[in-house]
């Protein structure tokens, strides 16, 4: 197992994709925490960087440190409550793109494997029959020489769900320092997992919004 070492991107700015009086959408880079950790050196994160520009910004959801892609933040408590309820009720739409080891035997499928925390090795997760339900749809987008580009749509939001599910079916995400073997970790300097599309209902206008950020690998 790898020890987590935090070296956030040196570039201090954030890639802002949408800003209005109620919400902010960013494209988070790989290697940046979504919110501060307990240690002082983990204070630098997407939330604190955004709060330099918009002090009122409120975290609504998280992406793994190594995962890049779209995140939405609220600018007041009413918007926070509205969008958090959408996440809890699974009324948002989140689609990811990943590059995984090997070629899958089918063009598409679903992974339904319950998960739980590995209490002896946090923050690792493990597949467990008595764990929390975790469901992921996958679809092959393209095949490369020894890897595949896949679309991943989670129906649940468990910690490390996409990473663990792909590892469980024998197609670990490239650059995965948690669940990958040496070959997988050395195949990419970053985790090749990207939050490609994010859809939700605007908390004030009730308009359905869908944001897209092309995968960078």
Order of helices and strands: EEHEEHEEEEEEHHEE
Q: Which bin fits the share of residues in helices?
A: 10-25%
Kindly name the structural category.
alpha+beta
Radius of gyration: 17 Å
State the separation between the terminal residues, measured CA to CA.
25 Å
The average pLDDT value, as a whole number, equals 96
The percentage of residues in β strands lies in 25-35%
Q: Are there runs of 5+ residues with pLDDT below 50, and where?
A: none
How would the global form be characterised? globular
Number of helices: 4
Task: Give your account of this protein's structure.
The chain has 217 residues and is an alpha+beta fold. Helix content is 15%, strand content 33%. It contains 4 helices and 12 strands, in the order E-E-H-E-E-H-E-E-E-E-E-E-H-H-E-E. The protein has helices spanning 46-53, 77-88, 161-168, 182-186; strands at 15-19, 23-28, 58-59, 68-74, 93-101, 108-112, 115-117, 125-127, 135-143, 147-154, 193-201, 208-212. The strands form 2 sheets. Strands 1, 2, 3, 4, 5, 6, 9, 10, 11 and 12 form a 10-stranded mixed beta sheet that branches. Strands 7-8 form a two-stranded antiparallel sheet. A hairpin with a 6-residue loop joins strand 11 (193-201) and strand 12 (208-212). It is globular, with a radius of gyration of 17 Å. The two termini are 25 Å apart. 35% of the residues are buried. The model has no long low-confidence stretch (mean pLDDT 96).
